[in-house]
Amino acid sequence: MRKLFLLLFLLPLVTMAQTKQITLEDIYKKGTFRGEFVRADFGSAKTETEIKAADLKDENGKSIGEPEDIIRTDANANIVLIRKGIENIYRRSSKAIVYLFDVASKKLIKLEDEKVLHPTFSPDGTKIAYVKNNNLVLYDIASKTSKAITTDGEWNKIINGNCDWVYEEEFEFTQAYDWSPKGNHIAYYKFDESKVKEYQFTEFDNKYNAQYTYKYPKAGEENSKVEIHIYDVATGKDVKAQYEQGDIYIPRIKWTKDDNTLVVYWMNRHQDDLKLLATNAQTGAANLLYEEKNKYFVEINDDWWFLKDGKNFLFTSEKNGYRHLYMNSLDGKTSTQVTKGSFEITNIEAVDETNKRIFYTMAYPTPMDRNLFVTDFNGKKATQLTQGNGTHRIQLNDDYTKFYDFYSDLNTPQIVTVHDITVDKKKNISSTLVKTVNESAKLKEKLTEYGYGKAEFIKVPNSKGDTLNGWMLKPANFDASKKYPVLFCNYGGPGSQQVANRFGAVSTWHQMLAQKGFIVVSIDNTGTGFRGEEFKKKTYLQLGKFEIEDQIDAAKYLGTMPFVDKDNIGHWGWSYGGFMSSLAITKGNEVFSAAVAVAPVTNWRYYDNIYTERYMRTPQENPKGYDDNSPINFTDKIKGKYLLIHGTADDNVHFQNSTQMVTALVKSNIDFESAYYPNKNHGISGGMDNTTFHLWSKMTNWILENMGNKNTQLPNKPAKQSKGF
Predict the structure, then answer these.
(1) Would you say 423 and 399 are in contact if contact means Cβ atoms under 8 Å apart?
(2) In the prediction, which pLDDT does 7 show?
(3) Cβ-based neighbours of 166, under 8 Å, separated by 6 or more
């Protein structure tokens, strides 16, 4: 009996001794918890022509080395474009030296001596288009000659074929031109940004520094004037698309299957009226194809398909309260809502025009889950092809008879399986498991070795009668008789989702904090996505109000739990999350004792107009909405501790947001801490220069020092630097 007692007593000690502690080095330097990459291989993939670095020699016989990017064309497997010296510009844009390589002759031709953007082949593979110095250029492969389609391009004035900053960031594309289906035309954007105000930031060096200046339209300020041109490749004729001018946006252009019809997406500045204009490529004349108005705003995405039958188009919309599929005829005579119900489509996986089927992923059975469905074009027969709770990420083969399922849930790493799609004589569709490809065995071993905790979903009531979705990760060796500090990890922006039933929603950093004695939680507040339009758009005209009220309600709710140290509840966030953290320590001063805000928006007047006005309209129209929820205006309320972090070269959320916050803090005589990272953008990252590790070390140690109690570990002491000679 005594031996059994001693054995039972020693078991926890043995287990603890065997469990490794997660370190910042594991996460940000060693890649200890990196998962395995699995490629969807259906066994029928096209064999791509191998490009050997040894064959890539310039006209002088000098090797250019390994390709950094290869662009191919289906029209000719023997020619490729190779990009070298890729230089990132903004979030989605980059430029590079571009070569044309003939695989058969092994001939390598440099298209330009300088870096260019967006090189693409024509559909027939005989020509190449690209953007050089804000001008669109056409290159003929046979004659090895180039021709400038535009000549008026100029930095900070005129852009052809490439987006201005705000379109790239907020309408989420950067290549601003597109070949027609047969390659007879190129439709392109022309941005006149000459009246857009400039923003500057300093690029620091070892001597006199430099100023980076670019056009950035802040809320309420003037935008670029946008024209859409259609260029005839054979004749060189250039026509301008005709549409209502004024203070408007053109968030998309898309060709139909007809080589002479371009659809121009016209939107008013309030972004609550969207028109699709079918535009004649020869004349530029247009007629209204579709219009959608919304009492809040219309979401812009790429879910538009102009079908091969030349008669119909398919799209998604929130116009009936949830994001669903619709089928409209091009003549405007018929419109069908294909999918229905109080659940949201999250992704269109494929449109099978031959069999008239649509494969889509839906947030079902809860907003946190994702499952695959298929429906016919008229929406009469929808079938669920994956089952249960969790996230199914899908990749279908070319003929839609098989799919790879990359599945995970909150606590289960990725499991990859292959499934057959079968259709019986009555047209009933089902899926059958063929094999399991990968179960993340190595990663699972690491999770066990390092004692990963199990997170749990929680439901949190707010003061408005809503129930908020959340997850909670309790400390390692949790003891309900003890009281633990709580760290909220929140983003909270419009349409976002942090509380998702997928592996990775709870990060390894969260797990490390739990090992150090913290309860880590995430709560998706009002305004977040996949719960219907009204829940998401309730924050309209007052960003921050309902969001922070929900975070405060959640903190109060958790504070009633017997194992929560209610006097030690902190809030962490980045970007919109940093805005939320800054509101937490100001407006939420009664419940939040500490906050870490990384690259925060501190006043929406400082942010770009497309994003901000979508939710707030202009400051001139809605000054109260801007001022009543700006952390800058409530610094005098701060009682707790505040850490403010920003990159000085943030082209997105300007460093100005933090400097103006500091000015307000000083005026209110509030003590705070700050850290800035020179020449770093919104992501504040870097492996070679140690930025990523330093940033996360800074935040971790600050949280341990300022939020820790007797049940948490002490912060790590910084490593001593070796002395020089």
Answers:
(1) no
(2) 36
(3) 216, 217, 223, 224, 608, 609, 610
Q: Note whether 456 and 416 are same-domain residues.
A: no
Same domain, 99 and 161: no
Confidence (pLDDT) at 528 = 98
Nearest Cα neighbor of 110 from 99, 97, 122, 102 is: 99
The most distant pair of C-alpha atoms in the chain lies apart, rounded to whole Å, by 97
Q: Which of 238, 267, 302 is the last residue of a domain?
A: 302
Distance spanning both ends of the chain, measured CA to CA: 64
DSSP element (H, E) containing 558 = helix 545-559
In a domain, 311, yes or no: no
pLDDT tens for 603-633 read 999 999 999 999 999 999 999 999 999 999 9
Tens of pLDDT, residues 67-118: 999 999 999 999 999 999 999 999 999 999 999 999 999 999 999 999 999 9
**Could you tell me if 363 and 373 are in contact, meaning their C-beta atoms sit under 8 angstroms apart?**
no
Mean pLDDT of 540-563: 98
Tell whether 639 and 692 lie within a shared domain. yes
Residues in CB range of 455: below 8 A, 6 or more apart: 410, 411, 471, 472, 473, 505, 506
160 and 243 inside one domain: yes
The answer to whether residues 646 and 544 belong to one domain is yes
Overall number of domains in the chain = 4
C-alpha to C-alpha distance for 457 and 291, rounded to whole angstroms: 40
Q: Which two tokens stand for residue 293?
A: 């108005």
Q: Which residue, of 443, 462, 496, is where some domain finishes?
A: 443
Residues 6+ apart with CB under 8 A from 9: none
583 and 542 Cβ atoms separated by less than 8 Å: no
User: For residue 646, is it within any domain?
Assistant: yes
Domain, as residue range, for 169: 152-302
Q: Is the pTM of this model over 0.85?
A: yes
Contact 421, 415 (CB under 8 A): no
